[in-house]
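Researcher: Batch entry, complex prediction.
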Amino acid sequence: MSAYDANNVFAKILRGEIPCNTLLETEHALAFHDIAPVAPTHVLVIPKGAYVNAADFYARASEAEIIGYARAITAALKALGLSDGFRLISNNGASAGQSVFHFHTHILAGRPMHALLAKE
Ligand code: 5GP
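Model: Structure tokens for the complex:
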């Protein structure tokens, strides 16, 4: 895993250098709408700390950050009115589809989602 790059786009959003459409903000996390949604609801939840991906976050973050992040996802789901019919995705590494190297969870909802991946 590469080192954290503080010039990634989500770090810039956290610093207020570029705008985002914020859903909610907590002590430990920010939730905002994806700029290129692939479902009617497509929200990203990011921790405020500098973590490359889920593997990095869950290995290094404090318990307060991890619990705060999980609660922020719950708060985002509530704000979106979602109790089921949604998918949470965190891509880890370019080969898994990660394109922004600041840990984030996608919340996807609003259209049918069947098999997780198409068969090769
Ligand atoms: P990944 O491919 O890393 O799992 O997801 C990155 C997501 O970030 C993509 O869905 C992409 O559309 C979104 N994204 C990239 N740049 C921006 C941006 O500047 N603003 C917002 N709101 N989303 C972005």
